Automatic annotation (TrEMBL):
Residues 4-230 form the AB hydrolase-1 domain. This is Alpha/beta fold hydrolase. Signal peptide: none annotated. It comes from the Archaea. One of its GO terms (molecular function) is hydrolase activity. Pfam families: Abhydrolase_6. SUPFAM superfamilies: alpha/beta-Hydrolases. Keywords: Hydrolase. The lineage of its organism: Archaea, Methanobacteriati, Methanobacteriota, Stenosarchaea group, Halobacteria.
């Protein structure tokens, strides 16, 4: 049995794994979806959230896990799971980047912005609320291009503004910590948020131990959960 610790990306919450958790359980695995502070139903004020808080939520889930841990980060959570693996390298068997940002030591999330990209053009800062948002008219096309209307409606009802502070905080990574953990990258070939070109550039620059590919847009946990679960199970095997 593997315990999959699942970490959502920006704007989302633990809810986004609702199609994945029971499918992993059907295969005999445990799945623990983490709710990052100021996301989902967590009541932390956005301006109080920090990267350290995010990492603490993930390491708490790792510490409570039974069996071998596969730590999965989607999108922005590539930053978070990298820092969590740095803190718990001996407890994580496999680190999975699901179309996620793959940082180097000292990188912050904002360092990975691509000026002029669709997601950069759609990103709106709400300084008064301390969050960033995706323009409503762009959300479905960027994040859920291959999802059903019902899935898009669900996501629209649950996404939240993303706390700005942690996006500017760098992560500290070492070869002895994060670098000692087996790393897998799952490419999504139709992603319009982290484009295939950006995914390839990060993998080429940072290196991983294995790669998988899904013919999916940015949210395969909604659009193709069965294929995603097959891929995660294989990646952790």
């Amino acid at each position: 049995m593997t315990t999959f610790v699942l970490v959502h990306g920006a704007y989302h919450g633990a809810w986004c794994w609702h199609e994945v958790v029971p499918r992993l359980a059907d295969r005999g695995h445990e799945a623990v979806p983490v709710e990052l502070p100021a996301h989902g139903i967590d009541t932390t004020p956005p301006d109080a959230a920090t990267m350290a808080d995010y990492v603490a939520a993930v390491t708490a889930a790792i510490d409570e896990a039974d069996g071998e841990v596969a730590l999965v980060g989607h999108s922005m959570a590539g930053m978070v799971v990298s820092a969590a693996a740095e803190a718990r390298p001996d407890a994580v068997g496999t680190l999975v980047y699901l179309t996620a940002y793959l940082p180097a030591d000292g990188d912050a999330m904002f360092d990975h912005r691509v000026p002029g990209s669709p997601i950069s053009r759609a990103f709106v800062r709400d300084e008064d609320a301390g969050v960033g948002r995706v323009e409503r008219d762009a959300l479905a096309d960027l994040f859920y291009a291959d999802c059903s209307p019902a899935q898009v409606a669900l996501a629209r009802s649950l996404v939240r503004g993303e706390p700005l502070g942690p996006l500017a905080e760098p992560v500290a990574l070492t070869d002895a910590g994060h670098g000692s953990v087996r790393r897998v990258f799952v490419r999504c070939t139709e992603d319009r948020v982290i484009t295939p070109e950006k995914q390839a550039a990060m993998v080429d620059a940072r290196g991983v131990d294995a790669e998988y590919e899904l013919p999916a847009s940015h949210s395969p946990f909604l659009s193709m959960p069965e294929r995603l679960v097959e891929t995660l199970a294989d990646a952790a095997a």
